[in-house]
Write a structure and sequence with these properties.
Layout (H helix, E strand, L loop, with lengths): L1 E12 L10 E16 L4 E5 L7 H19 L8 E6 L10 H16 L6 H16 L5 H8 L2 E5 L8 E4 L6 E7 L6 H14 L1 H24 L2 H17 L5 H12 L4 E5 L6 E5 L3 H13 L3 E7 L5
Parallel strand pairs: 3-4
Antiparallel strand pairs: 1-2, 2-4, 2-5, 5-6, 7-9, 7-10, 8-9
Helix pairs in contact: 1-2, 1-3, 2-3, 2-4, 3-4, 5-6, 6-7
Bound molecules: (3R)-3-hydroxy-3-methyl-5-(phosphonooxy)pentanoic acid.
């Protein structure tokens, strides 16, 4: 029997833009997915016991099987190896929190243990990236990197396919956030493809937005490293606006963002692939977090109150 786990994450700046080589900022959250893998007699039997948005496991089921087969291949194992796999843990299957990458890292670690492969973190990360392709089509790699290493990171994909730039960021203290879930499962792959297609068709509109996204990430890094949460919040608001412009927000995401700002968040934005899934609000403390959570509950949304800048491997 092999065991493993992988962190969930929130993207503070740059989702979607990172796929195209713009830098982004990601933090692991203090919730993870765990996996237990055991060699079996027949078939690939996956028992997914994560708390999930309605329809999450069914919607992702085929992608999950493809993802596991891709990872087995990347570990030089037969993709049809018979396995019993259990997936669980505290990270809920809400879209946008990197649950696919967290479970891929958890499964890769558990397979590595079960087959005595002794894979390093770097190798686990590379294997999980192969797994992510099943969920995201052309992933940036930001999710699996956060899921593998944890912590707070500056991430810039190398579009040529070489080594990505990953730098650890220092934050002075853990930062309180609230995550709001729309309850809608989103198809990351379709969202990523949609942005790429619109960008290709309308560079006049999209090129300046991509430049703005880069400026926001650079300014966001400075503000985070200086501990200026008010500034970080303002930049998150700006980031949400350009995510709306590239067509990845939704009615519910905008509603959650509005509620959070009204209750006193420093800033709020969608996080992850969008089109449903989750948003984050930077609250700076328990009092504002509590108010936001109360308002989310009142409006019928699920949420997660957590901190960023803590979990690390
Ligand atoms: O929705 P999630 O948690 O899978 O996050 C996707 C993040 C994107 O930037 C949209 C895609 C990527 O691979 O970076």
């Amino acid at each position: 029997m092999g065991k493993g786990s992988g962190y969930g994450k929130v993207i503070l700046f740059g989702e979607h833009f990172v796929v195209h080589g713009v830098p982004g900022i990601v933090s692991a959250i203090d919730s993870s997915n765990d996996a237990i893998v055991t060699k079996a007699k027949k078939g690939l039997n996956v028992k997914d016991e994560r708390k999930a948005a309605k329809g999450y496991s069914q919607e992702k089921r085929l992608q999950q099987i493809e993802s596991i087969e891709r990872m087995l291949k990347a570990m030089n194992l037969d993709p049809k190896t018979a396995l019993d796999i259990w997936v669980g843990g505290s990270l809920p299957g809400f879209s946008g929190l990197g649950a696919s990458a967290a479970s891929s890292v958890a499964i890769a670690r558990a397979v590595s243990e079960e087959f005595n492969l002794n894979l390093s973190n770097e190798q686990i990360n590379a294997v999980a990236y192969e797994g992510e392709k099943a969920y995201a089509g052309n992933p940036s790699g930001i999710d699996n990197t956060a899921a593998t290493y944890g912590g707070f990171m500056w991430f810039k994909k190398n579009p040529a396919g070489g080594q990505d730039l990953v730098e650890r960021l220092k934050v002075y203290r853990p930062i309180e956030i609230v995550i709001g879930s729309t309850g809608k499962v989103a198809n990351t792959k379709a969202m990523v493809e949609g942005v790429a297609e619109r960008k290709r068709k309308d560079p006049k509109k999209y090129d300046p937005l991509f430049k703005q996204a880069e400026n926001i990430a650079v300014a966001g890094r400075k503000a985070l490293e200086a501990g200026d949460l008010k500034k970080v919040g303002d930049l998150m608001n700006e980031n949400h606006r350009i995510l709306q412009e590239i067509g990845v927000s939704s009615k519910e995401l905008d509603q959650l963002v509005e509620i959070a700002r009204k209750q006193g968040a420093f800033g709020a934005k969608l996080t992850g692939g969008g089109g449903g899934g989750c948003m984050i609000a930077l609250t700076g403390g328990k009092e504002v977090s509590g108010k936001i959570v109360g308002a989310f509950k009142g409006a019928g949304f699920e949420y997660l109150m957590t901190k960023i800048g803590v979990a690390t491997h």
